[in-house]
Amino acid sequence: MPSISLPPPTPCPISPSVPLPFTLSHGTTTLGFAFQGGVIAAADTRSSCSGLVACPASPKVLPIHSHLVGTTSGTSADCALWKRILARELRLYQLRHRRRLSTGGAAKLLSHMLHPFKGTELCVAATLCGWDGDDENDKQPITDKYENPPTNQTAASDSSSQSAGTAPAASQPSCKYQSSRIIAMLLEPS
Q: Residue 96 sits in a domain of what CATH number?
């Protein structure tokens, strides 16, 4: 099966003499929290460009692997592409090494994959939330369905957030994805 081949990155500096056709305004807010029982990932659902709401129900909390979800902010196409690439690389790691990559390892892998595109117009911001097991059940080769959840969770930090603007007005949060240690919430705009 052929893998995705990306062209080498080429820096595209924005010239101050050529103005953009419209002002770029940002407004995505994503949050990740680690607590005793697992991790919580939350994000708004509105996809917009300036004053235009492109999609009122855009998923920004995405399951990546059996132990990992990511919250995304940035260009929808860029975020979707890099989510798929990271999910593929994590699955390949699991098949090659007969164990899954840790949450910190996944974050470092994504960072190393995105670094060559620094200075280009790639627009991806991600918060990875997940847990790493340390009990006896986790030392065995794992499968896609996790029957005995591990007891130790980690996130990139105890609480992290990313915002490219102000937090949206939110009504009651709704739980859209729940695994044994991950609770992902989408904040519906009022």
A: 3.60.20.10
